[in-house]
Every structure is written in C-alpha cells, then in structure tokens.
Amino acid sequence: MSKVVTLNEFILDRQAEFPFASGELSRLLSDIAVAAKIVSRDVRKAGLVDHILGAHGNTNVQGEEQQKLDVVADEQFIKAFENGGEVCGIASEENDDYVAFTSEAAKKGKYVVLFDPLDGSSNIDVNVSIGTIFSIYRRTSDLGSEATLEDMLQAGDKQIAAGYVLYGSSTMLVYTTGCGVNGFTLDPSIGEFCLSHPNMKMPETGRIYAMNEGNIDICNPGIKDYVKYCQSFENDKGAPYSGRYIGSLVADFHRNMIKGGIYIYPGTTTSPEGKLRLLYECNPLAFIAEQAGGLATTGFDRILTIKPERLHQRVPFFVGSKKMVEKAMSLMQ
Ligand code: P6P
User: Fold this and answer.
1) What are the DSSP calls for 150-167, one per residue?
2) Could you tell me the distance, in angstroms and rounded to a whole number, from the CA of residue 122 to the centre of ligand 1?
3) pTM of the entire structure?
4) What distance in angstroms lies between residue 91's CA and the mean position of ligand 1's atoms?
5) Confidence label for 124 from pLDDT (cuts 50, 70 and 90)
6) Domain range for 23
7) C-alpha torsion 331→260→131→161, nearest 10
8) What atom of ligand 1 comes closest to residue 212's alpha carbon?
C-alpha cells in the first residue's frame, strides 16, 4: 500500500516549485481546504436539514434561520479568506459587487480570490453532485491598500492557481498552480484530503459529449452539426458517442477530466454570451483543463486570453479533450 500523502504535505513539498514561494499561497490553499471540509459536512447533511430538520428559509429547532446552502458556503469561504491574512479581497457568484477586506492585516494580503461557492446548488434537492470553483490571482494594486476592481478583472492567463471541490460520491479537491493538476480525496475518517489522482491528464479524446440539447435549435448551427457527428456511425469512432449531461458543471467537467469528453454551454439567441461566468467558472476550469492537456474556448477564442470587463460577465464555454474541442470548433459557423 502506497504512503498516504495529505494535501498539506503535498503543498509544502511542492512549495519550492512556486516562484517567490514564501508560504502565503500554501497557507491560502490550506485555508481553502479547511473551508471545503466544512462545506462538505454541511452539504452531506443538506437532505436532513431540508426534509427533516426544517427547510431553508424557516427557523430550525434552535430558532435559527435556516440559510440556503450556497449562502452558507459563500460565508464559509469568505470567512476563511478574510481571516487567513493572505487575501485582500474577493469576488463571488453570491455577491453583486466585489469585497475589499478592510483590516490592516488583510490589506497586506498579496492575493485576490474569485469563486463560485456552490455551483449547481439547485441540484441539492435531487441529491446530485455539486461543486465549488475558485480562481487565485496576485493583486495588481499596492500592498497595504484596499483591493480594487482591477484586481478582480484580470485575464485568465494571469491566474496563479485554480481549483474545484466536487461534493460527489466522495468529496474531492482538484487544483493547479501552473505545474500540472493534482486531485485529492477527502478521507472523513481522518478529516484529511489525501492525494488520490497525481498529475491528472485529460485524455486527448473521448466518447462523451455533455450539453443541454434543449438549446440545440437556438445556438450556433455548427453545434447541431457537432451533435449529429457524435450521434453518427461516420464519426471517428465508427459508432455513436454517448450523451451525458449531469447539469452540474463541476461534475460534468470532472468526469471529462477522468474519462475524456467535451462540455459545451454555448451562446444562444436568447443569451448570446451563454450562461456560465467567465471569472469564477470558465477561467479556473480553463486553467485546469489546459494544465491537464485539454482545451477551453468560446467556440472561437481561447478562454484564458479574454480581458474581463464585468465581474459577472458570461461567455460561451467549450471545454474538454483537445481533439473533441477542436472538432466542435471546426464546425462552428
Ligand atoms: P442548464 C448550474 O446552474 C450551472 O451553472 C452549471 O453547473 C450547469 O452545467 C448549468 O448551469 C446547467 O444549466 O441551463 O442546462 O440547466
């Protein structure tokens, strides 16, 4: 049996790989892991809370207001970032505006974090996997000052780290600091994330396409051509691909990381920019995908080169196995 490597051991071992490594990023990643364990605990009991202990929006037996789980998760991560001392500000899917921390200690933080605390939270009611997605940048504003909007609106290729937590059949944390992608599985019996998927590589091709085909008639005709290609015997497999759409981005993305595949959320006639957010959904997953040998584009342009203009800006998203994304792009009109 191979030695168990915990996330904290791994972070410290690999710290030397990171330029100007002085421990702050290591501590920040550890803070994220602690918040993820707490959110995992809350997610695991969500069914009980909703159906036995009192649904959200009501008061529980202690007379406490039951908060929506994504609000609870948002507050948990913000608390971890604000108290950790490494982060000067955040932007979150749950908050209309960015948050610049005001304590003297936090203002000395080198980093900003953009995150979706609980993506796919509408799936909680049907017990489907959900996820947290995070993206870390070095601030561009002066140390000691409050974080600025410009700190948040950096192109994805300026990320220094990105990751996701998948609250699935097990809880996993997958992240990159630009030196490859590694996956850790939470062992609840010891409360540690343990290295389970070292040096993850997304298969160059695969058999799975994931998209909401309900949109097929209101998106770029090239996507309909791609789906037909996947369903035909004339494709490169000589047999139909499989459609798999969980409807939870982190779960669909992670499956493709392991098995190969493509996830598409395109622009449509009603939502030309699509549904997914650039800053805290597409950029972090694009960084991970590219670090694992995959591709991430809008169907035309590389996600990581887009200069953001707004915090909650949406972009069309094609992400996954390199050859599958290239094929889909070749059919776009
Ligand atoms: P649709 C969840 O709301 C989410 O942001 C992603 O996790 C998921 O992939 C997508 O939206 C599902 O959207 O329109 O297919 O229900």
Assistant:
1) HHH---GGG-SEEEEEEE
2) 9
3) 0.95
4) 20
5) confident
6) 7-197
7) -90
8) 15
